[in-house]
Structure formats: structure tokens, C-alpha cells
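re the bet — no i am not wrong, look at it urself. input seq straight from the record:
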Amino acid sequence: MKVDFLFRPNCIVRTINDKNIERDKEIKIITDSRLELSGSAFLALNGEKFKAGKFASQALKKKASVVIIDTSEEYLSESDLSQAPNDTCIIFVKDTLVYFQELAKIYSSAWKQMRTENFLIGLTGSNGKTSTKEILNFLMNSLHPGKVHCTKGNLNNHIGVPITLCELSDEHRVGIIEMGTNSPGEIDLLSDIVSPEAGLITNIGPAHLEKLVDLEGVYDEKSGLYRHYSQNSHKLVFVCDMNDEFLRRLGSMSDTYPYREGKDTSLEEGEYFIDQDDIHFRFNGKLYHFKNNYISSYHNKKNLMASLYLVLNLYPDRAEEIIKIAQEAKLPEMNRGSYIQKNGIQIFADAYNANPASMMASLESFVVEFKKNISKESEEHVAFVIGDMNELGEREKYYHTLIAGKLKQNVENLIKYSPKLKISIYFVGRMATVYGEGFKLKSVEAKKYNSTDELIKTEMSSSNIKDWNWVFLKASRSLQLERLLDIFDALER
């Protein structure tokens, strides 16, 4: 980003030394005053519990080229201002977050205008966003090596999206922007900033119900992405999963591209069928078949197909090439929705996100994966460690009881398949008792713990877990279940 962009947002109140800085040079925006700031722009973003403007004087001492602060308080004394280098510019704004969001919108719009082929893909949904983003990034980067910029980690909120957009460079041709929400209006805000030319909503499910209230509220929130796509005069592709009862509403729109999971290999246009590792689908009147050995879980294969339909509709003339790329698509190890092997233990780990839809999909995929790899005579030990699903509002007890029932069904399915299995169940968190009440399977004891610390102290000794072979690990981020992975790492068997 060139320095000149820093002066374009409308919420600037005043500046100091703005005539002394070279407007045409490249500059990096940094929001953490602890980092090296020399030659960079320090943006003092205030949080709920701290005022980043208090570090403005420190940023000056660390030779930041630009310091951006709000006018809510006098963060810089007269002494600070008098001692500021003549070539250091200070920008005062009404609100640093509003400034940052406005800057990201201005900059990304200018980036699009640099070349006609530059465009942004917006991505949201109740679950599967990050896995779908990573698969989409793999496909697009294979088509445009080194020219695709993608949301890193979980930078998908009102701060993360501007960070991602401001990192677009001259080398990039495509930006993949993940958007998350937990309050009404957030997707509308982020989509307005991004103004995507292409888009994908993974699904509509019961997540963040504390503020979104119900599934209708979730749909209204997530569909903000489509509304902004539809207003884009340069719109390209928006794909919709017609198996989702809410997304069907968007799939009927003339500017969307519907797809669905079929019941067998007799497929109509836009349908796909997953037969273990084999994937069949019909696109542009032609029936295709391929196999991906890197993405094992059923729900991530569905995420692969969502990404694939988006990319195929962007580049229909490159279908054969894209399908070859899809055969090699893989997910990075990220403690969320992926299989990890540690000391011979096969672990499904998603210690970052949990809501009812993702929990049900993950449980079903885990059982399918287990049955695919283990014989009916197996005596292996399978452990389920399941924690709280947060932000479910007034219906949290209902949804935790529902998931306990689904777990019971899946465990019964495993026992029926392989009666000699040893199965252990651990419920963790403030909803552990609710889970336990909903599980109630006479042949399998479910143990309940109030915290991950309590679980580790009581159950996670080497002697206790040394015979574990398969582990299902899933909970909301607050439970910090990823700590168990370190224990499996250190296990001596």
C-alpha cells in the first residue's frame, strides 16, 4: 500500500507533518506496538479493555513513519509532539476502527481497478468456512501460482478483514476473504467493505444464537454476503448448496449457480455424489469422476465440492485442468476439522469451533472414516472427548442434549459394526452434565468434567491413554482442548 492511501478516508480530523512524507512510497500498517515499527504506519486500534493510543508516544520513539490515533483522548503531550521527527506524520481520526475499515474499502477498490482480472471472493457460513477457504486457496493458487491472497488463520472479523484487504499487493490477482459474525449486521458491514465479485455461503446452521436468535436470523445475517454480491456491477459467480433449506432461496436467483448432493451416480446438472473416496459430478452437461486421497472426512469432501463448483464456474473452459488439481487438494494441519497422527493415535481434532451442525457432521464423518479403516473384528480403543458449544443462547440445553443423542446413535453404530471395540466418552465444560443426561447408554460409561484442567489431571496420564487408538476431539475454543495434542505428542508407547 502506498502512503497516499492513508490520507483518503473521510474520518480524518487533522494531520501533523503530512507535507513532509513521501506519498508514493510503500508502507505497511501495523497494529501491535510491540513489533518493529521503523518505516511503518502504526494504527492505534482501541479494544474493549485497552486504549492503543497510549502507545502512540512509544511508536514515535520506535521511528514509525506514520502514527494514526483517535481524538477521544490526548494521547500525545505537547512534549511528544515537539520531539516527533519532522518526517514522521501523525494522523488524528474520529475513530481508528472506522478509519481502518474505510481505508480497506478504498484500497481494495483501487486494487480491483488496477487490472480488469483482479477480483475478490467472499466466503461465510455457519461452519466449514475455514476448511473451505483453505481448499479454495489451494485450487486458486494452483491456477494462479503466487497471485492469490487469502485470509490467514481466523482473521475473519471487523478487524481481520481490513487487515487482509490492506495486504493485497500488485502481484495478486485474486483475494479470498473469509467473513465471520456473531452479531446482526456484521456480515453486511464486512460485505460492504469487500464488495465481492464472487461468493459462497457454506451452510446455515445453529451458531451464535445468543445474538442471532434462530436459524432465520442466521440466514438473514449470512445472506448479507449475497446481497452485496448481487449489487456488484462486475459480479462473476455465487454458488449455492441446494441441499440447505435456507440457501435454496438464494439458489433460485438468476445470478446464482446452484449445486447439490445427489443420491447416487445418476446425476443431473450441478449434482455430485460422494462414494467413499470416489467423487462423481456433472458439470456443463458432462459427467466427471475423480478421487482425492488427501481429504478424508465426508464433510470436508463436501467443502471440496463447494469450492470446486465455484472455481469451475469461474473458469468453465479449464474444467479438465481444475479437476486434476482437485485430486491433489489438501488441508493444512490446523487443529480444526482435520485428522492428525500422534504416536500411532489417529485423532480427529477441531479444538477451535463447535456448533450443532458442525458437531453432527464431524461425528458422522468420524464414524465413516473409522469403519473405512478398521475391521469388524477390531478390539481397538476409541475415545470421544466432547466439550461445550458456545453462543447458543436460550436453546443451548436443547442443542447439547441433541448432540448427546447423536453421539449415542453413532456409538451404537460403531458397536454394531465392531462389538469388540473399547469405547470411552468424556464430556468437558459447564454443559457436561447436560451432555451426560442426553447420552445414557448402558453399555458405555460417560465421564463428566467441569474443565479441561480437571480432565487432564484425572484421565490423561500415560497409563490411562496408552491403549487409545482413535480419538474424536471437538469443542468451542474456550475449552482449549488442543492442549491434549501435546499430551499425545509426549506419549511413550
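see?? Residues 396-417 form the longest helix (22 residues). told u. also The first strand starts at residue 12 and ends at 16. so pay up
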